[in-house]
């Protein structure tokens, strides 16, 4: 169960948000960026973003994470109501240390899925329970989810959150992430 820990105003390059932090069973420093008075307000746009230090912070070209994060924030910054939930589950949940190991295997020709499996780790180890609990905290039962990932939709729908609409999150492919995006589409079912 989560419990509100702290909140404060957070003006950003993409607009004004409020940042909420919660204590949680995993003891992870997840956060939610909120726009407007969203309590009990259904069908607001929500982005659930998984941490990518290399992309989100350093601007790595190996993935489209930063592009998706910035585009989501710019979109949300223009809405009256909305939320971005930022989950600290780096590397699809395997953590930064093993993600970089997986990158090194990808340099030997494995794709993003094969590299995880070769390390004896699941292709995707993520869990969206915290996001469901944040939505419950705000008494929201139905959202417009900003994603291309069908398994995220399945998880939320399996946990009491209706997805009334899917808002695609586009990113501009580059020569560096073409193969990665292709693998996401072919092996992980992403609608890109
Ligand atoms: N293990 C591993 N993780 C990666 C790799 N590239 C990106 N990631 C992680 O993948 C996560 C983002 O997942 P994506 O598949 O890009 O997007 P998504 O959240 O599933 O789907 P969208 O909602 O459509 O963005 C972040 O946690 C990144 O750190 C990689 O090659 N290996
Ligand atoms: Zn990334």
UniProtKB/TrEMBL annotation:
The gene is ribA. Zn(2+) binds at residues 52, 63, 65. This is GTP cyclohydrolase-2. Keywords: GTP-binding, Hydrolase, Metal-binding, Nucleotide-binding, Riboflavin biosynthesis, Zinc. One of its GO terms (biological process) is riboflavin biosynthetic process. It comes from the Archaea. InterPro entries: GTP_cyclohydro_II (IPR032677), RibA (IPR000926), RibA-like_sf (IPR036144). The keyword Metal-binding applies. The lineage of its organism: Archaea, Methanobacteriati, Thermoplasmatota, Thermoplasmata, Thermoplasmatales.
């Amino acid at each position: 169960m989560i419990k509100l820990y702290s909140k404060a105003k957070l003006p950003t390059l993409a607009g004004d948000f409020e940042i909420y932090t919660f204590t949680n069973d995993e003891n992870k420093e997840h956060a939610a960026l909120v726009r407007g008075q969203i309590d009990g307000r259904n069908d607001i746009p929500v982005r659930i973003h998984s941490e990518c230090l290399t992309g989100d912070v350093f601007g790595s070209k190996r993935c489209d994470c930063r592009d998706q994060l910035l585009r989501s924030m710019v979109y949300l910054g223009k809405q009256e109501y909305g939320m971005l939930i930022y989950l600290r589950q780096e590397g699809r949940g395997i953590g930064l240390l093993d993600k970089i190991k997986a990158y090194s295997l990808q340099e030997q020709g494995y794709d993003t899925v094969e590299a995880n499996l070769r390390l004896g780790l699941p292709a995707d180890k993520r869990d969206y329970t915290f996001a469901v609990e944040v939505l419950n905290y705000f008494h929201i039962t139905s959202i417009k989810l900003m994603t291309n990932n069908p398994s995220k939709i399945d998880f939320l729908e399996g946990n009491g959150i209706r997805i009334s609409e899917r808002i695609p999150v586009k990113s501009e492919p580059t020569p560096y992430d073409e193969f990665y995006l292709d693998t996401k589409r072919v092996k992980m079912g992403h609608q890109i």
